[in-house]
Amino acid sequence: MTSPSASAVTSLTPEILRSWFQEHQDLVVIDVRSAAEFESVHIRGSYNVPLPLLSEHTDEFAARLGSRVVLVCQSGARAEQARQRLGGAGISSAYVLTGGVPVFAAAGGDVVRGKDRWDLERQVRLAAGSLVILGLVGGKFLSPKIRMLSGAIGTGLTFSAATNTCAMGQALSAMPWNKAAEEPTRENTILQLPAAAARQTSAA
Q1: Distances (CA, A) of 90 to 24, 65, 119, 184
Q2: 130-139 confidence digits (pLDDT tens)
Q3: Which residue, 83, 135, 157, 180, could crosslink 150 as a Cys pair with Cβ 3.0–4.6 Å?
Q4: 6 near 21, Cβ under 8 Å?
Q5: Which residues contact 99 (CB under 8 A, 6 or more apart)?
Q6: Would you list the DSSP string of 98-159?
Q7: What is residue 32's predicted lDDT score, i.e. its pLDDT?
């Protein structure tokens, strides 16, 4: 199989990922959502490496990964950010799961379910929508200046789309309700990943 370039958007369907679990011992599935989202539901056999942690220690994580890496999140946006980060660290063959964990589960994929909670992307939509409404209502009944809040949210969402980042999502991820019982650290997250050399030996 030819490895895609680091600049290519390489997507993988849930059906193919399901078959890869059966066919490839060297497969590593990295879930870049928050630990709380991972606790709620995740693909069986996947490893949780939250995007902020991966972004901060990209080279160290890249050194642990082999040639068959699939990145997953809630929709694919954060997984694509992770793919770009890893591409810059020399992992040019990472795939992004189309539709994220929900689509994989809907397609009959094997997932582990825990405490039900809102995913981070849904929280971002709620927070942004509420602030826009607050700006419009406040601007009408309190002060026209409050309408600037709606404009600021719109500007932030446009910037988020243009840069494929989400400052609001990062802020919400730090809230207490988005914290897991045990938050991943650099040390325990790196150590949970199987060494690339060991996987290549078992797959040979």
Answers
A1: 21, 10, 30, 24
A2: 888 888 888 8
A3: 135
A4: no
A5: 14, 75, 76
A6: TTHHHHHHHTT--EEE-S----HHHHHHHHHHHHHHHHHHHHHHT-GGGGHHHHHHHHHHHH
A7: 96
Rounded CA gap, 31 and 73, in Å? 6
Neighbouring-strand partners of residue 43 = 111
Which of 103, 105, 149, 109 is closest to 129 using CA atoms? 149
**How far apart are the C-alpha atoms of 22 and 17, rounded to whole Å?**
9
Instruction: Convert the pLDDT of each residue in 66-111 to its tens digit.
Output: 879 999 999 999 999 999 999 999 998 899 999 999 999 999 999 9
* Tokens linked to 137: 């209502």
Q: Any idea of the CA torsion for 137, 138, 142, 144, to the nearest 10 degrees?
A: -100
The owner of tokens 């799961």 is 97
**Tokens 């897991």, residue?**
180
- What is the pLDDT at residue 168? 75
Q: How far apart are CA 105 and CA 8, in angstroms?
A: 26
- Residue 136's nearest CA partner among 123, 124, 128, 148 is 148
**Is the Cβ–Cβ distance between 71 and 82 less than 8 Å?**
yes
Q: How many residues does the chain have?
A: 204
